[in-house]
Design brief:
This protein has 13 helices and 13 strands. It is an alpha/beta fold.
């Protein structure tokens, strides 16, 4: 039996709600709500959380800093942005937050797949050149975090005798993650990072991608770990799960779908986004793209657009298929994120063998939840 899969959750710093395509049940992206989700994830046994990045998100470094002071064990996967920030400045941010959080920082390398948004940040490089820039950026960043005095002159960066006086808590540096379906993205992953991430494509496609990245890494004498980004709709019965999936997109109009898909096609040069969009070529017609894998979110959501839908046993079986392909980490989410964090932990984690138990009063005190079980002796005594 493989080890239980590692499980992260997601902080929706761009907003949250009960229905896609509608303001009904919408929740404002404010810090008290982010804190609720993070503290729930911390208590429920999630290993970490992903903080997204982009024009429509609250700044992840600021949010992670606040959440680190409100949690105990939770790790924070925060974006570093080649081209948007300088590697020397990022090194100081990384070092400070890693020490502040007692070594709970993880780094998500985000090159960006939307040239329109990137232009607003002053980045005008074509797709593959952005990955070349990221390679230089990471070379400098890793050297600084490792305590080296760095002098570097490349096409995109020049630095002379750069150094970091305050090192991070994790040595040589916090682990590096990256997602990228293009050949340029896979090559950068093989050269520089520790964990390669993919969006939730069908297991066969994920297996092909992992095999390709492994070959590239092996050619450089390296090995990588692999993770997947998925949404979850887990219920006690399959019928309940599919009803919840249908409800989530029940307010999405055909016009909204057309507008969203046109925007993705026109604005984005992300290979991963193209692969997500290919899963929904028939619109609402056929959204089940593999057993229990539903592409309904991708109708209007960019990025990760698929969810595993079903009972705990069904979803656990699908995750085991991804594990067989090489996946060790899941970064999950669900709408709304607070309630779904509880559902996934309470329903799915036991089926995955993830032990989240903490000793509570209910283990020693008889109440309406323990009648007939470990409280039986207290009931009898009373």
């Amino acid at each position: 039996m493989p080890d239980p899969i590692r499980f992260f959750w997601f902080i929706p710093t761009h907003g949250d709600g009960s229905y896609l395509g509608s303001s009904t049940g919408e929740r404002q992206p404010d810090f008290p709500y982010f804190r609720q989700i993070a503290q729930a994830a911390d208590r429920l046994g999630y290993e970490g959380v992903l903080l997204p990045t982009g024009q429509n998100c609250e700044e992840g470094w600021i949010i992670a800093t606040g959440l680190a002071t409100a949690t105990e064990r939770l790790k924070f996967l925060v974006a570093v942005r080649p081209g948007v920030t300088l590697p020397s400045f990022t090194a100081r941010q990384v070092s400070a937050l890693d020490r502040l959080s007692n070594g709970r920082l993880l780094l998500n390398v985000v090159v960006g797949g939307n040239p329109v948004e990137l232009a607003g940040d002053g980045v005008f490089l074509p797709h593959d050149e952005r990955y070349a820039q990221a390679g230089e950026y990471l070379t400098i960043l890793r050297g600084l975090l490792a305590g080296e005095t760095v002098s570097f002159e490349g096409k995109h960066y020049r630095i002379e005798a750069g150094r970091l006086d305050q090192p991070p808590g994790q040595r040589p540096h916090p682990p590096l993650y990256i997602g990228g379906s293009s050949e340029a993205g896979q090559e950068l992953a093989a050269e520089q990072v520790d964990t390669y991430l993919t969006w939730g494509e069908p297991p066969a496609q994920v297996a092909e991608k992992i095999a390709a990245v492994r070959r590239r890494a092996a050619a450089k004498g390296r090995t990588l770990r692999f993770g997947i980004r998925l949404h979850f709709i887990v219920r006690e019965t399959e019928a309940e799960a599919w009803t919840a999936a249908d409800r989530l997109i029940s307010k999405v109009s055909d016009e909204q779908i057309a507008v969203a898909q046109a925007r993705f096609l026109k604005q984005m040069d992300s290979v991963g986004q193209r692969r997500m969009s290919e899963l929904i070529q028939n619109g609402r017609g056929n959204l089940v793209v593999a057993p229990n894998l539903w592409a309904g979110l991708g109708l209007v959501r960019n990025g990760a657009g698929t969810a595993l839908v079903g009972t705990p046993e069904q979803v656990a079986e699908r995750l085991r298929e991804y594990q067989e392909a090489g996946i060790e980490l899941v970064i999950g989410s669900g709408y709304p994120h607070l309630e779904e964090a509880y559902r996934v932990a309470e329903l799915l984690f036991p089926a995955l063998g993830i032990d989240t138990r903490r000793r509570t009063l209910s283990e020693t005190v008889s109440n309406e939840f323990t009648v007939g079980f470990h409280g039986a002796s207290q009931v009898a005594a009373g």
